[in-house]
Amino acid sequence: MEESREYLGIWVTRDGYIKHQLLPGNRYDEARGNRQSAYVGAYRVTGNHIDYKDDTGFTADGDFRNGILYHAGMVLYKQKQNDHEQQ
């Protein structure tokens, strides 16, 4: 699987409740509220599309459009490096 470096990092909902950390090596770690690592698994980016498969076998997908990740009815924004402000 190829990595898309532009997508690596933390993607967060506007309210900060859900955070997807897209890691090198095509792994992800999703936090929900105070629950760290609520979902952990693999991902694959093809063009602007992302497919997720968590370690229990559950699958989901999403699309990156104009610097925003649309995933399962959620809208996530990439956090800037070295701070917790959203782009």
The biggest sheet, with number of strands, parallel, antiparallel or mixed sense and barrel status, is: 8 strands, antiparallel, barrel
Low-confidence segments, given as residue ranges, are: none
Total number of domains? 1
Total strand segments: 8
CATH topology: Lipocalin
Given this structure, which CATH class is correct?
A: Mainly Beta
Protein name: Protein Atu4866
Organism: Niastella populi
InterPro entries: Atu4866-like_sf, Uncharacterised_Atu4866
Describe this protein's structure:
The structure is a single chain. This protein has a single domain (5-78), classed as Lipocalin, CATH 2.40.128. It has no helices and eight strands. The chain has strands at residues 9-13, 18-23, 27-32, 35-46, 49-54, 59-65, 68-71, 74-78. Strands 1-2-3-4-5-6-7-8 form an eight-stranded antiparallel beta barrel. The mean pLDDT is 90.
Which keywords apply here?
87 residues, mainly beta
What is the compact description of this entry?
InterPro entries: Atu4866-like_sf (IPR038646), Uncharacterised_Atu4866 (IPR020955). It comes from Niastella populi. With 87 residues, the protein is an all-beta fold.
Note the topology:
Layout: E1 9-13, E2 18-23, E3 27-32, E4 35-46, E5 49-54, E6 59-65, E7 68-71, E8 74-78
